[in-house]
Amino acid sequence: MLQGLKRTLRDRSSFESNIDWLKTVYDRILARFRQVKSLPGRGSRVRLKMKNVASSLWIRLGSSDRLVAMEIFIEGEYDKPLNLLQTKKVKSIVDLGANCGFSVKLWSTTFPDATILAVEPDEDNCEMLEMNN
To answer: Of 86 and 30, which is predicted with more confidence?
Structure first.
């Protein structure tokens, strides 16, 4: 539990404001207490501004969206392949299972001239993908 608290406090520096960070703290609470359906805001869409992301991200509170955003933009999940591709002229990207669109945002920022085909079969994720790109 102490490790989680340390990580939560460390993550603060990744967000533009305390309000953005507190949204993620509340999302962690919702995730921790999944069985408590009466907590307000579960499923709500909220906008987050992270320091190393050019534009805002939309997440659904109580979903895996926050975790995906943190994997991509804080933990650098795609850093190794991006570093390998930086010297290449990338023309096309296919993102199968684009989820809520955070990876698409990363691709489009990193490779602004590339054509991106994002495939996502889940309707709710598709709506989030459109909101995030």
So the answer is: 30
* Strand 57-60, strand 45-48: pairing: antiparallel
For residue 69, CA distances in Å to 38, 64, 113 come to 25, 9, 23
For the chain, percent helix, then strand, then coil, each to nearest 5?
45, 15, 40
Q: Please say whether the beta carbons of 78 and 105 come within 8 A.
A: no
Contact 27, 61 (CB under 8 A): yes
Q: Report the C-alpha gap between 104 and 46 in whole angstroms.
A: 19
Per-residue model confidence (pLDDT) at position 1:
65
Calculate what percentage of the chain has a pLDDT beyond 70: 99
DSSP labels for 20-57? HHHHHHHHHHHHHTTT-TTSTTTT-EEEE-BTTSSS-E
Measure the CA–CA gap between 3 and 72, rounded to whole angstroms: 21
State the average pLDDT over residues 24-37: 92
How far apart CA 79 and CA 83 sit, in angstroms, is: 6
CA 52 to chain centre: 12
Query: For the segment 43-53, what is each residue's pLDDT rounded down to a tens digit?
Result: 999 999 999 89
